[in-house]
Amino acid sequence: xxxxxxxxxxxxxxxxxxxxLSGCAGGGAGTxxxxxxxxxxxxxxxxxxxxxxxxxxxxxTGGGKIIDAIFAGLVYYDAKGAPVNDVAxxxxxxxxxxxxxxxxxxxxxxxxxxxxxxxxVDAWQYGxxxxxxxxxxxxxxxIEGFSYDEDSPLTGLKxxxxxxxxxxxxxxxxxxxxxxxYSAFSPLPASAFTDMAAFGENPxxxxxxxxxxxxxxxxxxxxxxxxxxxYDGGRKPANGGLTIIFYxxxxxxxxxxLANNLDVLDALPDSxxxxxxxxxxxxxxxxxxxxxxxxxxxxxxxxxxxxxxxLRRAALSMAINRxxxxxxxxxxTRTPASDFTSPVIDGWTDKLKGxxxxxxxxxxxxxxxxxxxxxxxxxxxxxxxxxxxxxHQGWVDATMNSIKxxxxxxxxxxxYPTFKEARTLITNRTIxxxxxxxxxxxxxxxxxxxxxxxxxxxxxxxxxYSNPKFDALLKKGSxxxxxxxxxxxxxxxxxxxxxxxxxxxxxxxxxxxxxxxSVQNVNxxxxxxxxxxEITKG
Amino acid sequence: xxxYIFRRILQAIPVFLGTTFLIYFMVFAMxxxxxxxxxxxxxxxxxxxxxxxxxxxxDQPFFVQYLIYLGGIFRGDFGLSFSGEPVTSxxxxxxxxxxxxxxxxxxxxxxxxxxxxxxxxxxxGKLFDASSLAxxxxxxxxxxxxxxFVGQYVFGVWLGWARTTVGSGAPLQDLVxxxxxxxxxxxxxxxxxxxxxxxxxxxxxxxxxxYSKGLSSRxxxxxxxxxxxxxxxVTYLATDFGVLLVGATITEGIFNVPGVGNTLYQAIIRGEGxxxxxxxxxxxxxxxxxxxxxxxxxxxxDPRIRYVK
Lengths: 538, 309
Hints:
The structure holds two protein chains of two kinds.
Chain A: H1 5-20, E1 41-46, H2 61-70, E2 75-77, E3 83-85, E4 88-92, E5 98-103, H3 117-128, E6 157-161, E7 164-168, H4 176-179, H5 196-201, E8 209-211, E9 217-218, E10 222-227, E11 241-246, H6 250-258, E12 264-265, H7 276-280, E13 284-296, H8 306-318, H9 322-328, E14 334-336, H10 362-375, E15 381-387, H11 393-407, E16 410-416, H12 419-427, E17 434-440, H13 446-454, H14 468-479, H15 483-500, E18 503-515, E19 519-520, E20 536-537
Parallel strand pairs in A: 1-11, 15-16, 15-17
Antiparallel strand pairs in A: 2-3, 4-5, 5-7, 6-7, 8-10, 9-10, 10-11, 12-18, 13-17, 13-18, 14-18, 19-20
Chain B: H1 2-29, H2 34-37, H3 46-55, H4 62-74, H5 87-122, H6 127-141, H7 144-158, H8 172-202, H9 205-212, H10 217-245, H11 249-254, H12 260-270, H13 273-301
Helix pairs in contact in B: 1-13, 5-6, 5-8, 5-10, 5-13, 6-8, 7-8, 8-10, 9-10, 10-13, 12-13
């Protein structure tokens, strides 16, 4: 028995060499593009949709990305978040309560069914009906007839003719037309209603893309979308299709981007924050997104009610060094907050009265805390609850250290193992600490960051905040007929929040990502999703 | 022999029932409401939550939920995931991928492990032996994710010899790199087991007898030494195959392999009871079968431990 000793030793040595090498080489450069190819398929990252692909039942980014690509609603948002008519011809109202919507005629779903006003009305009726238990049903709660207690049709929706319908709301909402770009308001073909489960597996839309032939959706692997030739709206693709590859882990997606196996990536793994700008050069993306991060202190906690509560909240807020934490913990991938919304939203400003409370000021923080102690002395430990499966430990610990060092009190994070455990305790109000809260906008409007979270009894008002003055300003803003005066009211409403601080604003998440050497025209939209239809490859 | 196999299969039934019950109970007892988590950071309306809970039988008491699930299994219905996909089709999709990965890794570690271990054992104390021991020590002491990341970076990004992640359909060539990573730690263990066993066997009387009968080492090494050294290695390989089959969560995650480990991890995080229980049940069954096969295989290697009635 003769064995090539050298051969085996070589294999062993190669293995040792490979495994002990630390990854220190720079990113390789690919071949530059010659000219773009209109039939080229763009690959991008995504995640397996958590629910069937039904517009009203998709509330997470994995499915949302697909729904947005295969459906065209009444309006879509441009890169800046301004609504542009897609299927709609006009959306009109005199009183912000009754809207008359006209749609373009001659449009078709990819199964050749026509897109009519019933396509919208029936889809919204389906999405709103209680027994259909759609995750996004709350989008219809302002339409007349909506009920959480029983199955009741939306009486506020009326079909006038094939291309016209009217919507009657329960109260004036100036930003209702702005909301219509959200995917829950997409139309559905009549064939969907015969078997919604089958439709959710193989959806038929009217958007810029459609599912490829065969099994386009390979579960847990990818979904292949091709251009819908019949689409003629403002989002006409400049490429031949979009393949969304599902990654369970951002690290794998980032490696694929570096190896040029992936064209566009819209989420970086935490481990790449330190190196991605060097790895990708000018192909790196880091821009503010419509995501607001905060922690909420419910008023029912001891020491956080009334005048004492106001002082303590302001003191805590001023004890947090946001600039340092966003720089060191997040390597600049977060932007310190200066209000309760996001810089990508029309109407955002960092000049709100009282926004000083979001600036680090150790002396003032100590003074305010001492004033609160004079009302009732502080006892115990200040805690922020968070879910340990979401990568929050770093900033929570840093924030707590900042509070501890400034105010000289005990402050620690309270981790819960899973997201669902933390959310359950928050939802049923059994949590006895402050807790992490985040909000990703559904549509690019200031109201979306305020109404659902801080209005009295609002759906996501987890801190049970209530201030009649704030509610009144929201209501006023909603009944204004022009956007600028509405935004002024919403800004004034935020100035009340800055005094009361039901939640302590921390920072805005940035969207971080990058793209490969073979694609061009990559821009990220207001909602942190790349504008896929504009991307060219070649 | 048939009686023995029959007895072993009968024993598997209570194990099967016991595990499904325990796992179901553990998923049930996990804190937090998976339905609430479906809504992300937004707070759902209680009425919508109640509708969804009823849809997944989550409003029923534990025993009713378990019986509904068990009843489904006997009709071949393993329930639905939250995305509305039958769990049976998730099983049918992910297990072949993981099985391919596991078999590939097993082939690598068996072939290279036994080969290197055998040479090391025969050349005890020589340079090859010393270096293979050093390599195996390094591999055993490195956590698997380090090996995986370095392997992915060096061979995928830097040299470009392999795809960084496993593509759709998990073709065999994409699985080579993850399989090598998975095999690396077991490879080191097998080298050490084989080496020790070969050294021990080489010193036994029957080997000396074989050589003195005039047999060449070409015959003595494979037939007399290797075969008698393999029992501990086979035991190790069998358990290792079980471990590989039930999914290598970390490696599958790093290489984005659409296999069992990856899928199960996400189902646990989401609290998808039917998916978790079904996966674990199938894993238990695989373990049981592999164990029976190993016990039978012993008899082939060493006639002295053949099973008699």
